[in-house]
Design brief:
Layout lengths: L17 H16 L3 H28 L4 H30 L1 H4 L5 H10 L8 H19 L3 E3 L2 E3 L5 H4 L4 H17 L1 H21 L5 H8 L7 H30 L24 H15 L4 H11 L3 E4 L9 E5 L4 E8 L4 H18 L13 H14 L13 H31 L5 H15 L9 H4 L8 H5 L5 H19 L1 H14 L5 H7 L12 H11 L2
Parallel strand pairs: 3-5
Antiparallel strand pairs: 1-2, 4-5
Helix pairs in contact: 1-2, 1-3, 2-3, 3-5, 3-6, 6-9, 11-16, 11-23, 12-13, 14-15, 14-21, 15-20, 15-21, 16-17, 16-20, 20-21
């Protein structure tokens, strides 16, 4: 049985203030001073859950309607208050770590290692810088959400233009890409200015905190405790060595199949010679079919019941609309133990991918809701993405339900190809960020040139033709993570390397793969990334042969 969720529209978390936070943390401090470590930890966890639930709801409402003045004001308020709350939180972590022997009786070594990273990322001297960083990220999000792209007599937002970028007609794809990049070019100076300011404030924070560069601070903010930038660099090299040649071969074959004289950037999104498979139908049909899919996948009935509860209690927002922030994500309200998924359906096969992806996040968060402290509800991001990408592959046996009639096998092939194509792109995004923060004084023109150089390194087939803005290196400005979540991107490639291992297992033993996946979800964030992977009996992506079997099996399947 699934414990009923509270109706989403009834959620209303108290709005904190500096005064209310001071009072709450004073009580925690009193427990520490009296030597009652267990009570202090419990009170601390309760306070953090309350604050993060309120903050998540504020962020979600803003994403749902970036034009709503009340939601904008609430987001602005949260942006200024959160650094203050972080300061209070950091002080308690420091005090608990100062009594580490006693604290270790109540918290795992992994949680303590997370806290050791956390306390190095904040000082009251950077409070105003954090507020400025949040303001700039909100400005970027609102700018993209407000996009109005004219195309063949109609106006579309960035999600709405995507279906035309996948049309079978080549001229339509080219025209749609030109319209899309016209928006970025028209706003290029603003986008460059926002990112300039973000780099400036992030570097200033790193310097204030005593780091040699923002790269070091960025890794600490991502809570990466069991691998380094050097490990990531070697992983990127393996992608360029092993995956890039396979993707290039796949694209060359596609060019021949399609009869194109050359491969252009606007051709890459059309993966299937018969046209990319479309979803089975409209939103209502997709929801109905998804319930059936989860019923068939999981004989225990748990997944289907969980999904039904999310739908019935309105914990999904999947329809594209004006003013809604782009992209997709999963958030949660830890005081309730309930996740929420957000996306922008636009009638392409991407609807299926984003739905199964975000449902993987939601299922994991719900499965690990009983973990003892808030730090263990979500894993660090590279581990969290295993659950999202893992479910994308585990739904393969029943994915026909979500795809147009007769296109299930074509969708599976497309999904695998797109997954492989993503690895070089993900490595490129990560490498770009390392270059940017290693050389923070780059001009906007130098940043664009750096992207174009790395794009050619990881994706040597990429030819932008007459699309001048991305041809000069402007493609990175469409990647929201680069602006809003620095260094959060290699996580997807690391997780994909693990998810593809689950895919390999599922090809020969689907029940075993689902059991393995369920176990990974229950673990939540109780351990660091490499430990989680090893305990599941899988290969850590940083190991030399991690990509070898995946590439071999994918090549056998796709190049026959």
């Amino acid at each position: 049985m699934i414990t009923p969720f509270p109706e989403f529209n009834t959620l209303d978390f108290p709005t904190p203030s500096r005064e209310s936070l001071d009072q709450a943390y004073a009580v925690i401090g009193e427990s520490l001073e009296s030597g009652d470590i267990a009570s202090a930890i419990a009170l601390f966890d309760t306070q953090r859950r309350a604050y993060e639930s309120w903050s998540a709801l504020v962020e979600l409402r803003f994403a749902q309607d970036t034009r709503n003045a009340d939601y904008v004001a609430a987001r602005d308020y949260a942006d200024t208050l959160t650094p203050y709350a972080t300061g209070l939180e950091t002080d308690i972590k420091k005090r608990l770590l100062a009594t580490r022997e006693e604290t270790a009786k109540h918290l795992s070594a992994h949680v303590l290692s997370l806290w050791e990273a956390d306390i190095t990322t904040f000082d009251e001297r950077i409070e105003s810088m954090l507020a400025e960083e949040a303001r700039l990220c909100a400005e970027y999000t609102a700018l993209l959400a407000a996009a109005e792209i004219p195309f063949r007599g109609e106006t579309h937002n960035l999600s709405g233009i995507e279906p035309f970028q996948q049309e079978s007609d080549r001229a339509t794809r080219h025209e749609a890409e030109a319209a899309r990049w016209g928006f970025y070019e028209a706003n290029g100076e603003t986008l460059d200015r926002i990112f300039d300011d973000l780099v400036r404030v992030r570097v200033a924070m790193a310097q204030t905190l005593g780091f040699n560069s923002y790269v070091e601070l960025g890794y600490r903010r991502m809570r990466r405790t069991d691998y380094t930038a050097a490990d990531v660099a070697r992983f990127r090299e393996r992608i360029a060595t092993h995956v890039t040649p396979l993707v290039q071969a796949l694209l060359q074959r596609r060019q021949l199949e399609m009869g194109w004289d050359s491969l252009k950037a606007w051709d890459e999104a059309l993966v299937d010679p018969r046209g990319n498979p479309a979803p089975a139908g409209d939103y209502d049909l997709m929801i109905t079919r998804a319930r059936e899919m989860f019923s068939r996948l999981d004989e225990s009935g748990e997944m289907a019941a969980f999904f039904a509860e999310m739908v019935e209690r309105n914990y999904v927002d999947l329809k594209n609309r004006g003013g809604k922030a782009g992209g997709g994500f999963c958030t949660s309200f830890s005081t309730q133990g309930t996740p929420f998924i957000f996306a922008n359906f636009n009638g392409t096969h991407g609807d299926i991918g984003v739905f199964t992806h975000e449902m993987g996040h939601a299922y994991q968060n719900w499965k690990s809701r009983s973990q003892p402290v808030i730090d263990m509800l979500w894993p660090t991001m590279e581990a969290a993405e295993i659950h999202s990408m893992g479910l994308e592959f585990l739904t393969w046996p029943e994915i026909d339900l979500l795809v147009e009639d007769g296109a299930g096998e074509r969708y599976r092939r497309l999904h695998l190809i797109e997954s492989l194509c993503f690895l070089p792109y993900g490595a490129c995004v990560d490498h770009f960020q390392h270059e940017i923060y290693a050389h923070p004084d780059m001009t906007p023109q130098e940043r664009h040139a750096t992207w174009r150089r790395l794009e050619q390194q990881y994706m040597p087939w990429r030819d932008w033709g007459d699309l001048a803005y991305p041809a000069k290196g402007g493609r990175w400005q469409a990647q929201r993570h680069i602006y809003n979540s620095p260094f959060y991107y290699i996580d997807y490639t690391l997780a994909l390397c693990v998810a593809l291992q689950i895919w390999l297992i599922a090809q020969v033993d689907a029940p075993r793969a689902l059991d393995l996946y369920r176990g990974l979800c229950e673990v939540g964030g109780s351990e660091a990334f490499c430990t989680i992977v090893r305990q599941a009996g899988l290969t850590v992506p940083f190991e030399d042969d991690a990509l070898a079997e995946i590439v071999h099996e994918a090549e056998q399947m796709l190049m026959m």
